[in-house]
Design a protein that fits this description.
With 871 residues, this protein is α+β, with helices and mostly antiparallel strands. It folds into 6 domains: 130 residues, Immunoglobulin-like; 102 residues, Immunoglobulin-like (Sandwich), CATH 2.60.40; 235 residues, Alpha-Beta Barrel (TIM Barrel), CATH 3.20.20.80; 132 residues, no CATH class; 78 residues, no CATH class; 108 residues, Golgi alpha-mannosidase II (Immunoglobulin-like, Sandwich).
């Protein structure tokens, strides 16, 4: 609510610190205020001298009376700003020079009939800025044969200059170039000699956080190169041949084949994790882009095995310029591994040593963006100059050449810095209050952790799409994973998909239609239930061809959720069948939970399709959208199989090995492909190399290397400590090798038949069936069949030339199970040849008996049976 009535002097001035009114269009201001018997005035001060006293608003250059619009806000305004749909509307005079006023300190105030003010507040400007200054022309540094030109969108700036430097740091500018404004865009033409130099902008602009006109030093939001730690923007022409590895222009024709998005399998990887501890990589390249070009390293050899088995995409955690890791490696601090290895596996000493330097070492996941459009400098051999561009391109090229496409993790939902002085602030220095999403008090929303961005604003959306275009064309990446995608508007995501679809090899050197986009469609915070417009949440994205992570199948398999009790069990972690110490309720409750989890898993195995019909555990035929979670949320949300990402383990929360070890007895037929552990760390974003180590020699999995950092884990230390101390939990090299083989076998099986990668919802509905259903189901067993066209099945086309029928049986029980179904009798099923030839003696004991249609599957085993065609 606005500050009301004359109170203390500090409260009076605070009324301008808050921006509770919205200038939503050229002609309307919206304010949630009682103005029935009063008059409303708009005030402006170019020098930011406004103040609130008991006598009213002082220090203004302009004072304009506003009339109440009793018809309220227009539909297009409430569609853009649904959270203020009930605000009162005030008319702005048509004669007002609005374009000049938005450069000023602004306020509105209500005066009673007796002339005393009753409320005053500052204004939020994105609505009027979008209407008056939306711009689609060039931005950033634009290179031509004759000159380098600069363009910056900054409609609220009062003055703007570019400071040009020859060096990446230190020294005085060699030139200070004033930029000229036309309709909110500031520009300057320079000389070709600027290429290779650095620059920053000096922006004079009113900033509501300080109530002053500030001189802000900022990078270019459209930077394509930076100096170390992003202190200056590099003039760099990404089209220059000097920045292209040999054969770069031909890479689009050398991409690994991808016939359908349904064929995709994604492998998530952090650049530093991949090679920081790999002794087979040149020490200068460890933890860097160039490690991926080390063709004979253990890590690259592992990726080659994954690629040969079927992995199609490597998803790299953030690779843009982010904060909290110095770009210059000589600034890093290191833990002494010999000292850390001397402590017991359940000691708190390791985490003490790691957290003491965690903000000064070389490790961070990178979800703290500073500049979206430039590769991170710490992963380059030299963070200054164009090295990061060249080496990033070499990384993409090397991965493509071993059969892997590259997905970038993009974080457009928030920014690390804000305000006029933060060294990591960029956008908020140039157009304060526009790029960051504000609440109704004018304060920055932080539901994504920090500084939420506002893609509902035209130039924010444009910056996101332009950034995607740059990474696609200039770095030839093959996909994008959107962090907290639900905080971005659906319109933005659909525009991004449309933009990519329009790219072709002939016009832009890339096939945009082969670029896959997906993300976290969580619906929470201020955007929940379309609170800021239709957002890119799971349910809103159906029909777009954009994928979103399926947390339903994750939670059903593992139990609970990442935010629940760590011992809550799920379908594969012992619920009912091998209980731990957690109280899940009565046996009847556990039976319902297990049965409900199975229904969720079946829907997930059927691509999480809304309209796929299953028989639930109560024996009713229901659609996927009618199967609900324990919170009453529909499980299924997709209209196409490419719109769901099925997963159980990602960088967030415990690794699969760790979570299984925490919730039940560890079993080595499941888990990440090398049984990776982070010693039960549930959030290792800043836990250093020690807790995030990968060992591609397959000798260890990083289990039992100390209690994980206390910040996110201390409350669970009593559960964690005895497990880390117990040597039976630690896998041997033989277990890791078996897990790798199992993982590769599963991939090979997936790619052995197109029936595992059906491309349409209709094909899935026609061919996929679940058999162990209804109230009489065998607990702990999922039975799925996929039927292909063959004689006797009218209307079903043939997709697989080798197999006519496939049955997949998942047995999570601690004992072998048998399952018989008359519909599967008298067929010629045999164990899939990949499993029949594996070294896994468990799965090789799986059997089928044609007379009874009975399948026998050993404990904790997934068996795949196929019916070969008579060729």
């Amino acid at each position: 609510m606005p500050v009301e009535g004359p109170t203390s002097s500090s409260q009076l001035q605070d009324s301008l610190l808050y921006c509770r009114a919205y200038w939503v269009s050229r002609s309307r201001i919206a304010w949630n205020v009682d103005a029935e018997d009063g008059s409303c005035y708009l005030y402006a001060s170019k020098t930011a001298f406004l103040s609130v006293t008991n006598d009213g608003i002082q220090g203004y250059d302009v004072r304009i009376k506003l009339e109440v619009d009793n018809t309220g806000l227009s539909e297009n305004v409430t569609e853009k700003f649904p959270h203020i749909r009930d605000y009162k509307a005030f008319k702005v005079p048509s004669t007002l020079d609005v374009k000049s006023l938005v450069k000023c300190q602004l306020a509105v105030a209500i005066f009673n009939s007796d002339g005393k003010w009753s409320a005053a507040t500052g204004l939020q400007l994105p609505g009027v800025l979008d209407e008056l200054f939306s711009y689609t022309g060039p931005l950033g540094a634009v290179f031509s044969q004759e000159a380098v030109s600069l363009y910056l969108w900054a409609p609220t700036a009062q003055a703007l200059s570019a400071c040009i430097y020859e060096d990446p740091s230190g020294g005085d500018p060699v030139e200070i170039v004033p930029l000229q404004e036309f309709n909110g865009v500031w520009s300057a033409n320079g000389l070709r000699s600027w290429e290779g130099c650095y620059y920053v902008y000096e922006v004079s602009v009113y900033h509501s956080s300080t109530l002053r006109v500030e001189k802000c030093i900022a990078n270019d939001p459209y930077a394509r190169g930076l100096s170390a730690d992003g202190r200056r923007t590099l003039f760099v022409d990404l089209d220059s041949d000097a920045l292209k590895p040999e054969g770069w222009d031909n890479l689009a024709d050398e991409k690994p084949d991808l016939l359908s998005f349904s064929d995709i399998s994604i492998y998530e990887l952090h650049i530093r994790d991949f090679s920081a501890n790999d002794p087979t990589v040149d020490p200068d390249f460890r933890g860097c882009y160039l490690a991926f070009a080390s063709q004979d390293s253990a890590g690259v050899c592992h990726l080659k095995r994954l690629s040969s088995a079927g992995i199609t995409h490597v998803h790299l955690l953030p690779t843009f310029q982010f904060a909290d890791v110095a770009d210059e490696k000589d600034k890093w601090k290191y833990a002494d591994n010999q000292v850390l290895e001397s402590f017991p596996p359940d000691s708190d000493e390791q985490q003490d040593h790691i957290t003491a330097i965690q903000n000064e070492d070389g490790y961070n996941w990178g979800y703290n963006p500073v500049i979206w459009g430039v590769p991170k400098g710490s992963y380059a051999s030299n963070p200054n100059g164009p090295c990061r561009t060249i080496e990033f391109r070499k990384m993409v090229q090397a991965l493509n050449h071993i059969g892997l496409r590259v997905v970038l993790d993009v974080v457009y939902n928030h920014l690390h810095g804000n305000g006029p002085f933060d060294e990591n602030s960029v956008l908020d220095k140039i157009v304060p209050g526009y790029y960051l999403r504000l609440n109704n008090d004018g304060c920055i929303e932080h539901s994504t952790c920090v500084n939420n961005t506002a893609s509902e604003h035209f130039m924010v959306e444009r910056l996101i799409i332009d950034d995607l275009l740059s990474w696609t064309v200039q770095y030839k990446v093959d996909g994008f994973r959107f962090d907290l995608m639900g905080h971005i508007m659906k319109r933005t995501m659909v525009k991004a998909r449309s933009m990519l679809n329009g790219l072709s090899k002939d016009t832009r050197g890339v096939d945009g239609s082969s670029i896959y986009i997906y993300g976290e469609g969580w619906d929470f915070g201020e955007v929940a239930k379309n609170g800021r417009g239709i957002n890119a949440s799971q349910f809103n994205l159906r029909g777009t061809g954009i994928g979103s992570f399926n947390d339903r199948i994750r939670d059903a398999l593992l139990g609970g959720s990442p935010f629940g009790h760590p011992l809550q069990q799920g379908f594969v972690t012992g619920l009912l069948l091998q209980p731990n110490d957690h109280d899940h309720g009565s046996k009847a409750v556990e039976e319902r939970m297990l049965a409900g989890s199975k229904d969720h898993i079946q829907v997930g195995m059927a691509a999480n399709l809304r309209d796929f019909v299953v028989t639930n555990y109560e024996g009713q035929e229901v659609k996927g959208s009618e199967v609900c979670t324990y919170d009453g949320i529909p499980v299924a949300y997709a209209l196409s199989p490419i719109e769901t990402i099925n997963y159980v383990s990602a960088h967030d929360n415990e690794t699969l090995f760790d979570i299984v070890s925490l919730k039940g007895i560890p079993f080595f037929h499941s888990g990440d492909e090398i049984l990776r552990s982070k010693s039960l760390d549930r959030d290792s974003y800043n836990s250093g190399d020690w807790f995030n180590r990968l060992d591609f020699s397959y000798k260890s999995n990083n289990w039992g290397i100390g209690l994980p950092p206390k910040e996110k884990n201390e409350k669970n230390w009593p559960l964690i400590k005895p497990r880390l101390a117990d040597p039976s939990f630690k896998p041997q090299s033989s277990h890791i090798l078996a897990a790798v083989e199992n993982f590769l076998n599963v991939l090979q099986i997936r790619y052995s038949s197109p029936l595992f990668r059906l491309r349409t919802a209709n094909a899935i509905q026609q061919r996929v069936r679940f058999h162990n259903t209804g109230p009489s189901w065998v607990p702990g067993v999922v039975v799925m069949s996929i039927e292909d066209g063959h004689e006797g099945v009218p209307g079903l086309s043939q997709l697989d030339p080798i197999y006519s029928y496939i049955v997949v049986i998942v047995n999570v029980c601690p004992t072998a199970v048998s399952f018989a179904n008359p519909a599967l009798r008298a067929r010629t099923f045999e164990l899939h040849p990949v499993q029949a030839m594996s070294t896994d003696e468990f799965v090789k004991n799986s059997m089928y008996e044609a007379l009874t249609g009975s399948f026998t599957v050993p404990s904790r085993t997934t068996a795949v049976f196929v019916e070969p065609r008579n060729i």
